[in-house]
Amino acid sequence: QVQLVESGGGLVQAGGSLRLSCAASGLTFSGYYMGWFRQAPGKEREFVATINLRSANTCYAASVKGRFTISRDNAKNMLYLQMNSLKPEDTAVYYCAANKVLITTTASNYEYWGQGTQVTVSS
Q1: Which residues of the chain have pLDDT under 50?
Q2: pLDDT of 56
Q3: Each residue's pLDDT tens digit, 15-49
Q4: What is the pLDDT of residue 55?
Q5: What own/partner pairs with CB < 8 Å and gap ≥ 24 does 18-22 have?
Q6: What ranges make up the beta strands (E) of 2-123?
Q7: 8 Å CB contact between 102 and 81
């Protein structure tokens, strides 16, 4: 079955960096558009970044543009999110997601989800 497993979360001070990873299995990774979403306590899940099949196109939420970078390695079935200049408001559970149809910022368009990894940014 399809599995998406996130890792790399943790506690970091404001201004610091983290690199999240998402290991995919059970699907032809190169055939899926991938995305990162996050959910803070008491808030709805929100879009962070997305990347198309061959990394030619990316899209970011305005709140993270210029600080976060999404990338993928199709040979390794891996998705990444490099997060720099972290802010306390970036604190959330971060999820990777996969869909076969299109590059999209809408969570409901994604078929598969990981279990999430916690990112906590202290001030």
Answers
A1: none
A2: 86
A3: 999 999 999 999 999 999 999 999 999 999 999 99
A4: 81
A5: 18/83, 18/86, 18/119, 19/80, 19/81, 19/82, 19/83, 20/80, 20/81, 20/83, 20/94, 20/96, 20/117, 20/119, 21/78, 21/79, 21/80, 22/78, 22/79, 22/80, 22/81, 22/96, 22/114
A6: 3-7, 10-13, 18-25, 33-39, 46-51, 58-60, 68-73, 78-83, 92-99, 112-113, 117-122
A7: no
